[in-house]
Every structure is written in C-alpha cells, then in structure tokens.
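quick one, 296 residues, struct below
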Amino acid sequence: MAGIGSIFAVNWYWRSYQREISDNRKFVLGALVILTPLFALIFGIRLPLWGGLPLPDVAVGTAGKTLMLFAALPALLGAWLFGPLHASILGMLAGISLAYFDTHSPFTILEFSWLAILFSVAVSQNYRTWLYRALRRPFLASLLLSSLYPLLFVLDAFFWVSGTVAERLDFAISNSYTATIAVGGSLIIAGLLVELVVIFFSDYKASSQELLPAPGETSLKIRFLNYIVWSALSVVVLLIVVNWFVAGRSAKESIQSQMASVAQTTTEAVPHFLNTGQSLVKQFAGNLANSIDSPD
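---
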C-alpha cells in the first residue's frame, strides 16, 4: 500500500510534466496499452543465476531471471510522449505481465511503474545545467536508471523475502546482479530505441519550454544538501558492496575448508572400509567352501 501511495504522491507532485493528449495521440496511447503486455512476454533471454541464492525456507531452486528485450519500450515511449501519469500506468501493465510469468514478485509492478515515472521526469525537465541536459537524452536517462536499479531491487527484495535480516540481505544482494542485467538491459534497449524516435520524430512531441535555472543554481542550501546526500549515499553503497564481497569470500573459504576436511576424513576412512570388505569377502568365501564340502 505504501508503494502504491508513493506512486500517487509523485504523480501529483510532478503533475506539471503531464501533457495534454490530443485526439490524434489517443490512438498512440491505446496502441501502447495493448502492446505493453505483449512486448513484456516476447523476445526473451533466460539468464543464469550467477551465484544467486534460492529463496530462504524454500526447497525448490530459483531459476534465473529473464531478459525481456522490449518489455520497457512501451512504458518509456509513453513516458516521453505523455508524461509521468501515463508512464506509471504503462509501467504497471508491463510489471504485471513480468510478475505473473517470470519474477512472481508483486514489487515488480511497483519497480516498473517507478522507473517509468523517473524516466518521464528526466526527459521532461527543462533545467539548463549540463547534467540536466544530459538527462533529457532518453538513452542517458535509461543508463542512469539501470545503474540505480540494484538499490531498488535490494530494497524490494528485502521486504518481499521472508527470513532473518541476514538471509534477506544475502538473497537480495546475491540475486541483484542477474536482476540488474534483466531489467537494466530492457531499460537500455528501450532507451536506445526511444532515443532514435526522438531523433527522427522530434516534431511529434510538444515544443520544448524555456530553460530554467537548476535547483542548485537558485539555492546554496539545496546545492549543499545535494553534495551531502550524494556523498553519503555513495559511501553507504560502497560499504554495503565491500562488506558483501568480504562476507561472501569468507563464507566461500569456510565452505571450501569444511568440504576439504570432510573429503580428507572420508579418504582416510577408505582403507578401513576396504580391509573390512576384504575380510567379509574372505569370511563369506570360507563359509561357502565349508558348506559345499560338508554333506547335508
């Protein structure tokens, strides 16, 4: 409920980026609504787990994620054409299809909706600094969202998976690589195709607005907070990644040591079993010979 409420909240907050839909564009919107579930289910590549752990307390193994090549295309195209509201709806439709047929996670619906909203805001904002100008390019915006998706996946998987905190984090982080390739690959492909649409059909979109000063240019406080927040976030992410790699390597070495110890113990016990087996074979052979020689 909190995720759905956040989608409503950000759509209201960024309602200024929403565009009017003319009669000739209603046909395009209807086509995108029909094509979104279809594109989410065709042209897929099954990815390996790449070290991903299965769900805690589940006996059945976890299959790798599926990279659906064009799953995000209708949502990102709608985000560029119509704005955050319709982008969130198209993202939900794509997420529903993927959640039902592939991920089996309700958070997939929220993930695609959030990604479509953020993409729409990125390509619709009209700030004048070089960073915001770069984000107005669909391909660069999709690259940024792909790089931020691991944080979103870890957060969602932490609340979706049952078990202890350590088990949830272990599952989320170990499966984040496969999930990032699956979703990030779809975002990058869609961003590239939308970039081509922007180049060849730029007149189809409404005319660009006058450029505005970026928030960091109008307020020293906002600029300072941006530096602090991004620096703190980078440090936290770096610490999480380093700790996870160190813990994973330590666990791997511990398992290898235990397996080597078990193998050595088993190897040392083999001669004992061989001697016992040979003694039993000789005993059975002697009993058999005695039973043959002795008359009934």
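The two ends are 86 Å apart (CA to CA).
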